[in-house]
Amino acid sequence: MKGQEWYQADDIAEEYEEKRFSRGGRLIDRREKQAVLDAIGPVEDSKVLEIACGTGRFTVMLAERGADIVGLDISGAMLQQGRQKAQAAGVDDHLEFMRGDAGRLPFPDDHFDAVLAMRFFHLADTPASYLSEMRRVAKDVVFFDTFNRFSTRSIYNWALPMGSRLYSRWEVGRLLDEVGLDLVSDDHDFVLPYGFYRQIPNRTASTFRKIDTALGGLPLGGRLASVSYWTCHV
Question: Name one GO biological process term (predicted).
Fold first, then answer.
């Protein structure tokens, strides 16, 4: 997987959220969390799996809403950050963080009501194999995001330390057909790329976000979006 050594480094795990979700990055955090909640609906008493859970942003959020959730990641350092976050939120007694390979999920078929992956598929060298595993262990919903090929994301893609895979909508559709998932809804956002928001203060970012949202709402605005959210049913 692209950037695997970089991603697992202790210093990256310690600084991951501060670098990405402070300043204007707070807007990104809120938008992504809302996308997850919109996709999987009420989660109380639902069994949920998050693969590539990282520092547990979504895992902890869903646990706070009553989900019976497992967060799986390949990075021990990231998982440790997640455990600390869960403890601080008071939900560490009813969620589980597990180190493992998303390409070989250690769960039986149809084990979870919903399976999600955020900020993952841009790193995947074999996306179909990961998506197939997500489908295998899900009973109902599979949700994930992608970064888009024909967008501003491509402008700075080369500068990322681990590289990044970009997808066209046609490629995502082909992947879903290949693994047997039915697309329920797709949502496309952020004409301005994530990296831009991270570099500016939150107040300034809010102004640009309004412009961004207006551009995205134009007839062809969605085609310029740098991020897509895909909600599928098994």
Answer: methylation
